[in-house]
Amino acid sequence: MLAIDSALDACSVAIARDGEVLSHVSEQMNRGQAERLAPMVREAAAQAGVAFDQIDRVAVTTGPGSFTGVRVGLSFARALALSIDKPCIGVSTLEALALEEGEDGLRAALIETPGASYLALYENREALIAPQGVERGEHESLLAEAVRGRPFALKGPGVTANAAALAVRASTLDPARYPSDPTYLRAPHVTLPSAS
Length: 196
Fold this sequence. Notes:
alpha/beta; 5-stranded mixed β-sheet; 4-stranded mixed β-sheet; 9 strands
C-alpha cells in the first residue's frame, strides 16, 4: 500500500505492508508539492525495497486542503494507480486526520485555512458529522451538541495528515466506498468577467 498526502502544509509518502510501515518520507511545505512528490515516491519505494509493480493499492487524501496540493496528490495517485492497474483509494483529509490513531470511540478533526474552517466527527469510524465547512469557532458548539458530554479526541487545527497511518488504514478500506474524487467544500474564489 502506497499512501500520499499533499493536501495541507506538507508532502508525505508512506509504504506499508500487512500493517507494518516500510518507509515514510515527509517534508513540511506549502508550495512545491508538484516538484517533490514523484521523487519522494521513488525515495519511499527505494527505502522500502519495493518495486512499483508490487504496490497493490494507492491511497490519497482528497481534501479539504489547498486547491493545488489536493490536485497534485490526486492527479499523481490516479495516474500511478492507472499505470500499474491497481485501485486508487481517496480518503477525506478530515477522516485521515480524525482516524489516524484509531477508529474506536469519538474522533474529530478540524482544519482551518485563512479563509475557511472544516470539521468532521466520527464514532467507531462512521461519520456523525460528515466533512463540512463551518464558520470559524462554530466547531465547539457543533461538537458539544453531537457528543453530548462524552469524551472525544480532536486533531487540529494546524496539523497535517500522517501518510504512514493512512497507508496502514487504507489497506482495509473498500475502494468502492472511497473514490479518489476531490472534496470541495466551498465554492471557488472566482471573479467572472462583466457582461459589458
